Amino acid sequence: ALLIPHEDEYLGEYVPAHNERLHWLTGFTGSAGAAVITQDKAAIFVDGRYTVQVTKQVPSDLFEYRHLIEEPALDWIQDNLTAN
Q: Are 36 and 64 within 8 A, CB to CB?
């Protein structure tokens, strides 16, 4: 699985435009979130502030919408990644 956080390589919360990887990949412009891509599935994780915004910016046919706190990305990975 590939994990794409909102933060840049220095884990800064203020990300310069050229490091907006999550926005580039998903279209999501919120200030917090992450995406996980596997061979068969993809999900985007946002907190409660962005539950409406994510549905308007990120295509549901490509990404499952998940709550960052209620279902952390690592839990989703464990549930959706096969052993092989």
A: no
